[in-house]
Amino acid sequence: MQVSPKILVIGSRGQIGQNLVESLRERFGYDQVIGCDLRKPAAEVGPFYQVDVLDKDALKRLIEEQGITELYHLAAILSAKGEENPQLAWEVNMKGLLNVLELGREGVVEKIFWPSSIAVFGPNSPQEMTPQHTITDPTTIYGISKLAGERWCTYYWEKYGVDVRSIRYPGLIGPKGLPGGGTTDYAVDIYHKALTSAPFECFLEKDTRLPMMYMDDAIRATIDIMQAPKENIRIRSSYNLAGMSFSPEEVFESIRKHHPSFQINYSPDYRQAIAESWPASIDDKYANKDWGWKAAYDLPKMTETMLRELSHHYSIKITN
User: Fold this and answer.
1) How far apart are CA 146 and CA 278, in angstroms?
2) Separation of alpha carbons 121 and 99, rounded Å
3) Helix axis angle, 15-28 relative to 215-227, nearest 10°?
C-alpha cells in the first residue's frame, strides 16, 4: 500500500498556492497538506502555520514536527513588484530558495518543488517557440533571481542529490485569487472587469503576445512533475511549460463574444518593456517527453470557464 506524502506548501496564500493546496488535498487527503505563509488566512482554511521562509530554523522545526516529506516552495516577489524594490526581491527569492535547498541537503525533506518562470528569458532569447536550452538574459530582478535559482537547483541536484523539481511558469490565469504584481496579471484582471461592466485599462500594448496558461493546467503540471518517477526528471534546472499564447486584444475579443459591450483602453506603462523582453511562445517538448505534459485549455475554453466561474462572485448571468 502506497503511503500518501505529507506536504508543506510555502506561500499557500498566493494565487498559485491557494489552488495548489486545494488540489493536493483532493488527491492526498485534507490533513496531509499543510499551508504556510507570512500572512494568516482571514478564515479557517485547514492546517496552516505562519512561518517566514527566511527563518530557516523555524521552517526546519515545522517540517520535522509535522513529518513533512514533500515541500512546494512558492513564496516569491513577482516581476513588477520586484522592480519597485530589487534588493528585497533578491533577498526573498534567493534566500528563501537556499534555505529550502539546504533543508533538502540536510535530509530534512525528501522532495522539493520550486517554480521558475519565462522571466528567465530576455531580449536575445528566441521569441517564437523559445527552446528549453537557449540564451537566458533576463532584464528584471525577478528573472535574474529565477535564473540564479535554476542554477542553484541544478547544483544541489548534481552535488548533493537533492531531489528538486521545477517548471518555468508562463502567465497564469484563474478565478481564485487576485493579481499579485506580475506583468501577465492583466490577463486575470480583465475578466474581473468584464463582469463589473467597467472598462479595462490595459498596461500593455494591444498586440503584445505572451505565453499564458489556465491555472488548472498549471496546478496539474505542478503535481504531475512531483509525482513522476525520479529517473524521468532529466532536467534539474527547470522545464519549459506551454499552454497558449495571446495578446491583450485577442483575449479582449474572446470576452466580447460573451459580453459585447465590454470596452478596453490601452495605456502601456513600464511593464511593456518587461513584456517585450519575454517570449511570445514556448517549446515544451522535453516536459511532454519526460513526464507526459500536455495542456488541456486553449483561449476560448479558458475564457468560457473564467467567466462562468467568476460570475458566481458577481451574480451575473453568462450569455453564449
Assistant:
1) 14
2) 25
3) 50
Torsion of CA 19, 63, 241, 15, to 10 degrees: 30
Kind of pairing, strands 244-246 and 210-214? antiparallel
What is the tens place of the pLDDT at every residue in 290-302?
999 999 999 999 9
Amino acid at position 72, single letter: Y
What pLDDT is attached to residue 15?
86
Q: How far is CA 143 from the centre of its chain?
A: 13
Q: What backbone torsions phi and psi does residue 45 show, to the nearest 5 degrees?
A: -130, 25
Active site residue 30: no
For 216-222, what is the mean pLDDT? 98
Whole-model pTM? 0.92
User: How many whole angstroms separate alpha carbon 291 and alpha carbon 211?
Assistant: 21
Grid-cell match 459580453, residue found:
259
Comparing CA positions, the residue from 126, 131, 215 lying closest to residue 170 is 215
Q: CA–CA separation, 141 vs 131, rounded Å?
A: 22
- The C-alpha cell at 141 is 530582478
Catalytic residue among 30, 49, 72, 142: 142
